[in-house]
TrEMBL record:
This is Sugar MFS transporter. Keywords: Cell membrane, Membrane, Transmembrane, Transmembrane helix. Belongs to the major facilitator superfamily. FHS transporter (TC 2.A.1.7) family. It comes from Olivibacter jilunii. Residues 16-422 form the Major facilitator superfamily (MFS) profile domain. The chain crosses the membrane at residues 12-33, 53-70, 82-100, 106-123, 144-167, 197-215, 247-264, 284-304, 316-335, 341-362, 369-387, 399-416. It is a multi-pass membrane protein. Pfam families: MFS_1. It is found in: Cell inner membrane. Its main location: membrane. Intake of glucose and galactose. It comes from the Bacteria.
């Protein structure tokens, strides 16, 4: 019988989890900066709603474009060194922000975001299956929940720390520039754009340091091509990922899930502003979304698999997401914003459940399946962009209707979709 993929890491189980946890913290910090960048660049580059949500589009579409290359990267470098490569690419993307800020060129900001997303595509392709198969399959959601806490703690800190610098006095500036002479307005906006330079220099330094630490670490390699007798027998005669319908539907479900997760974190500051709440206050709202997600992850760590199956947690989360989406639409002010923030709780256990359910029984197809799942992350590019278009055509509150069918599909996958098999 072939060894289980996690068998060769049992002796060093704690150390890999600590290292991957640090990795999830870093790319959580980088990812959730978008919630600040959207309103920040909307002001600095004089954008409408749709244009400002190109921030999320440029960042997350990279997952779709680069995911196939991520698999090749991991085959060449392996999991550990592939993670270092991904971190270096993210650092290069952060570096592009410096000339973008100096010239206040929105296209350069978008390029930097795309490069960052490309590096994160490699990191996600490596880290999610790595933590999934680092131990027993039935507790995979618990391990991913631990990683999620690291990710969302960073996601809560990022907009507060960077928002303090980038959105300082943003409401007053927005009011002033409408009556300024053109030359003064350009000078003020150039100063606003330059605020991003120092924070991103610090981010580049941290990314480079972590890349070096991971490269020199004892992080073990995992053989995802090995299959035990049961999996090998089940997969006999299967030649492509299309022989696994539960995976294909899982990719679509992940696409929709990432879309609503990104909306809950990235739209809330701008949405709060549209509800008449000052940006000085609204900059803290993403923290509320992240805290909600962390609470959900803690529930997952305590309850999965002892009290809740992974798919049961996913069912409950999808129904809660549906209820809160409607709450955001039919209430107003702080109550409506609170419903958006609490979507973090509804989203928390969906990602940890989708990965093990979609990768179940994949065996030698795991690396390829992981890259296809990562392609599904481009939902974070398209669905918020759709929200931005609806916000311009309709209004920011009614645009949240886009979430309702997404949560219905997530609920279906938890009920029956993950059980689909090719006959």
């Amino acid at each position: 019988m072939n060894q289980h993929p996690s068998a060769n890491v049992t002796k060093s189980g704690v150390n890999p989890i600590v290292i991957i946890g640090a990795l999830f913290f870093i790319f959580g910090f980088v990812t959730w900066l978008n919630s600040v960048l959207i309103p920040y660049l909307k002001i600095a580059c004089e954008l409408n709603h749709f244009q400002s949500y190109l921030v999320a589009f440029a960042f997350y579409i990279a997952y779709f474009v680069m995911a196939p290359l991520s698999t090749k990267t991991l085959k060449i470098f392996g999991f550990k060194n592939g993670m270092s490569v991904g971190l270096i690419i993210v650092a290069i993307g952060a570096l592009i922000f410096i000339p973008a800020a100096m010239t206040r060129t929105y296209a350069l900001f978008l390029l930097g975001l795309f490069v960052q997303g490309s590096g994160l595509a490699i990191l996600q392709t490596a880290s999610n299956p790595y933590i999934t198969i680092l131990g027993p399959a039935e507790s995979a959601a618990k391990r991913i929940s631990i990683m999620g806490i690291c990710n969302k703690l960073a996601g809560g800190l990022a907009p507060v720390i960077l928002g303090t610098v980038m959105l300082k006095d943003a409401d007053k500036l927005t009011a002033r520039i409408e009556t300024m002479p053109e030359a003064q307005k350009i000078a003020e906006l150039n100063e606003l754009a330059s605020r991003v330079i120092f924070p991103y220099i610090a981010i580049i330094a941290v990314l480079a340091l972590l890349a070096l630490l991971i490269y020199r670490s004892g992080l073990p390699e995992i053989d995802t091509d090995a299959e035990d007798e049961t999996v090998a027998t089940t997969n006999e005669g299967k030649n492509s990922l299309f022989d696994f319908p539960h995976l294909i539907l899982g990719v679509f479900t992940l696409f929709l899930y990432v879309g609503v997760e990104v909306m809950a974190g990235d739209t809330i500051i701008s949405y709060g502003s549209s509800q008449g709440i000052a940006l000085e206050t609204a900059k803290y709202f993403t923290l509320g979304t992240m805290i909600s997600m962390v609470i959900g992850y803690i529930i997952g760590i305590v309850c999965i698999p002892k009290y809740l199956k992974q798919e049961t947690a996913m069912k409950l989360c999808s129904l809660l997401g549906l209820f809160l989406s409607l709450g955001a639409i039919f209430t107003s002010g702080y109550v409506s914003v609170a419903c958006v923030a609490l979507l973090g709780l509804a989203n928390s256990l969906v990602w940890p459940a989708i990965w093990p359910l979609a990768l179940a029984g994949l065996g030698r197809f795991t690396k390829a399946a992981s890259s296809v799942l990562v392609m599904g992350i481009c939902g974070g590019a398209l669905i918020p962009l759709g929200y931005g278009a609806l916000a311009d055509a309709w209004n920011p509150q009614q645009a949240y209707w886009i979430m309702v069918p997404c949560y219905l599909v997530i609920w279906y996958y938890a009920i029956a979709g993950h059980k689909l098999v090719k006959k």
